[in-house]
Design goal:
Blueprint: H1 4-17, H2 25-43, H3 47-66, H4 72-129, H5 132-157, H6 169-180, H7 189-196, H8 198-203, H9 210-224, E1 235-240, H10 247-259, E2 265-269, H11 279-283, H12 297-304, E3 308-313, H13 320-332, E4 334-336, E5 342-344, E6 348-354, H14 358-362, H15 374-384, H16 387-390, E7 395-398, H17 407-422, E8 428-431, H18 433-443, H19 451-471, E9 479-485, E10 488-491, E11 494-495
Parallel strand pairs: 1-6, 1-7, 2-3, 3-6, 8-9
Antiparallel strand pairs: 4-5, 9-10, 10-11
Helix pairs in contact: 1-2, 1-6, 2-6, 3-4, 4-5, 17-18, 17-19, 18-19
Length: 508
């Protein structure tokens, strides 16, 4: 069955999200695919069960291969694999039992419906032929019994929804989400909780920038709740601040939060768009020019994936004509590419980063609010960008310079990333509080943000650790304590690379 709300949803959602086709064709195709998917679910395994069974087959193949290995790493992997396999097999058995029970109910209901239709047809024929005794048996005996049995089965079947028989708006929304990547289907409770705690998740990666984290979180929640302007992008922000304070990192964290992949965004380095003619690279070359059929770097990426984060990095370095192209994107949520196709930007989160005015932020006394120099920073920004461009941006956010108190959390983030690189070899880094403070002190530079810390970790931890690994001093599965000694940072019993010049090296 196809419900009326499903037809209405198909018309509305296709008009809103599928912009490169026309009604009623695109709405009919939505209903057609939703119906086909529902029919396939009835006749075949549910997607969840099918994916679990495929994973079980893969793990069993890996299990047989690992049984032939004798090293400690393979045996440990085999034990973990067998535990994972047992858990998946238990889940598969539970879901299979549920699915078969629901499928049996649905088959029984379909059988009763067929009998009910036949009985009603027979009743009509009996009335036309004057067979009143048979008509009475059907009208007051068989048909009411079949209707009662059908109602009982449907009442039981409503409690769980692995197998359904009516196309609803949710089914249509799922198809739209598959086609476009835009999450218009019904939010699960887990996703709602995740969105409500979005600031906590982003703050694990971006330290000391609460205002910026709150601004982008509010924009995403507003969009997912359906309350943003339907004719504009989800949000457009300009991040201003010194180098190394987390402007680009926040954008990566946002893409990771929304798509579980920090590379799921369009990143345009605006230093590549410094010439006037480079504007055509964004929207595609006009007819008659080389590259006309390739499409633009911006328009083609958004046309193929309408729901994503678009980052314009170091935006002040671009030619002023680039911003003329962005005016209609920020205001109307659309852009026409070189081939005349209208690209929908209404499901895009636009973020621009810039170092304009950073000299005022860097020279602030530690602990002073960034709003104290907002006027000076905005004066520089107004000089660089036209009023009609700035007026279309939702919010201009100042990133604070990093404080010494922020460095400990950043050390933890950087060391956790290093730990991931060593996880395959089961090597653990045990960072003491003294070593944490030592790295934070050495890596703190108000003018350069968190980037000097990366260099300190590379020089003081990664380089000596690489030598210890190659020499066989540190083996797979061992723990390496990081402490502070008289000579500085210590990796186990060994000092880190000395900051002194080697003997025999002199400066002119």
């Amino acid at each position: 069955d196809i419900t009326d709300p499903a037809i209405v949803a198909a018309a509305e959602l296709s008009h809103r999200y599928i912009t490169d086709r026309f009604l009623p064709d695109k709405a009919i195709d939505l209903v057609d695919e939703a119906s086909a998917r529902l029919r396939m679910q009835v006749d075949s395994k549910p997607e969840e069960l099918d994916s679990i069974d495929r994973e079980i087959v893969r793990l069993r193949i890996e299990q047989e291969a690992l049984k032939k290995e004798s090293d400690a790493g393979s045996q440990e992997r085999l034990r973990r694999l067998e535990a994972e396999l047992a858990e998946l097999e238990a889940r598969s058995a539970t879901i299979t039992a549920r699915w078969k029970a629901e499928k049996d109910k649905l088959g029984h209901a379909a059988e009763i419906k067929t009998k009910l239709d036949n009985a009603r047809n027979e009743l009509a024929q009996a009335q036309r032929k004057g067979e009143y005794q048979r008509a009475g048996e059907l009208a007051y005996g068989e048909i009411p019994q079949l209707e009662k049995a059908l109602a009982e089965i449907e009442a039981i079947g409503d409690t769980s929804g692995m197998v359904e028989e009516a196309v609803t708006p949710d089914h249509v929304a799922q198809v739209v989400s598959r086609w476009t990547g835009v999450p218009v289907d019904k939010m699960l409770e887990g996703e709602k909780d995740k969105l409500l705690r979005m600031e906590e998740s982003l703050a694990k990666r971006v330290v000391g920038q609460e205002e910026a984290v709150e601004a982008v979180s509010r924009a995403v929640r507003r969009a997912r709740a359906g309350l943003q302007d339907p004719n504009r992008p989800i949000g457009s922000f300009m991040f201003l601040g010194p180098t190394g304070v987390g402007k680009t990192e926040l954008t990566k964290a946002l893409a990771s939060f929304l798509f579980d992949d920090e590379t799921a965004m369009v990143r345009l380095d605006m230093s590549e768009y410094m010439e006037k003619h480079s504007v055509s690279r964004l929207i595609g070359a006009p007819p008659g020019y080389v590259g006309y059929e390739e499409g633009g770097a911006l328009t083609e990426a958004v046309r193929r994936r309408p729901y994503q984060v678009v980052l314009f990095d170091e935006v002040e370095k671009a030619h002023p004509d680039v911003f003329n192209v962005l005016l209609q994107v920020l205001d109307d949520g659309r852009l026409t590419d070189g081939q005349g196709r209208t690209v929908d930007f209404r499901n895009v989160l636009i973020i621009m980063t810039s170092n304009l005015g950073s000299e005022y932020l860097v020279n602030q006394p530690e602990g002073e609010d960034s709003d104290a120099v907002r006027d000076e920073v905005m004066g520089v920004v107004r000089h660089a960008f036209r009023p009609e461009f700035l007026n279309r941006i939702d919010d201009i956010i100042l990133f604070h310079r990093l404080r010494r108190s922020d460095m400990g959390a950043i050390v933890d983030i950087q060391m956790a990333r290093l730990g991931k690189l060593l996880s395959d070899r089961k090597i653990a880094l045990e960072l003491s509080d003294e070593a944490r403070d030592w790295l934070a002190d050495k890596g703190y530079d108000p003018a350069y943000g968190a980037r000097p810390l990366k260099r300190v970790i590379q020089k003081s931890v990664q380089d000596p650790l690489a030598e210890l690994l190659l020499a066989g001093t540190v083996r797979d599965g061992e723990s390496v304590p990081l402490t502070v000694g008289p000579a500085g940072l210590m990796l186990g019993e060994f000092p880190a690379a000395s900051e002194a010049r080697p003997a025999g090296v002199a400066l002119n």
